[in-house]
Amino acid sequence: MSKSKHTPRVDYDQIAELYDSQPFRGKEVDANLQIFLTEQTTKQIEPLCILEIGCGTGNQLVANRPEVPTARMMGMDRFRGMLK
Fold this sequence. Notes:
Blueprint: H1 12-19, H2 31-39, E1 49-53, H3 59-64, E2 72-76, H4 80-83
Parallel strand pairs: 1-2
């Protein structure tokens, strides 16, 4: 029987304060969101609602805000430190 290789899990509560300070953490508007918006053929009566599961600090939601300023956005993450 072979041992499976496990990657150590990261405790994001411990690194949350430093998470966005890394240079590779910068975000741009999500390309898939832009494609979705261009494919819409009818105007929505209600504002667009976006739920990001595993949002971390929410930096992608912040980056997407200019593209959809009236959208209702919510992020969920299991680590409280990231949500602070």
